[in-house]
Amino acid sequence: MKNLDELRKIKEEVRKSMEMRSGGQRVKVVIGMGTCGIAAGARDTMKAFMDFLDAEKISDVAVTATGCAGFCEREPVVDVEVQGQKPVRYAKVDREAVMKIVKQHIQGGKVVQELVFA
Length: 118
Fold this sequence. Notes:
This protein is of the alpha+beta class. Helix content is 42%, strand content 17%. It is built from four helices and four strands, in the order H-E-H-H-E-E-E-H. Strands 2-1-3-4 form a four-stranded mixed sheet. Strand 3 and strand 4 form a beta hairpin. The chain starts with a helix and ends in an 11-residue tail after the last helix.
């Protein structure tokens, strides 16, 4: 850290990250972060959600992690829970899938059928 402005920038980044991980939002995105999920790229998936939501200035979405769901071959697995709707589980969610889920499901209200866990 070189100066007070740099410290403020770090503080703001941490605050944004904490807001995205808290509850009480319109949408909750839950990413499977068990060993198999992490090995399949779940950390990159979580980062992609946070980066893309931030870039799109979407602030009413909580991004959080959970343990293994038992679907190792389908990882990374992501659940999208929109208030008042049935949760949707997506499988093999990479960076490209994250963009589709955010644009079509979270912003547009339409489930991305080709990514739904089946």
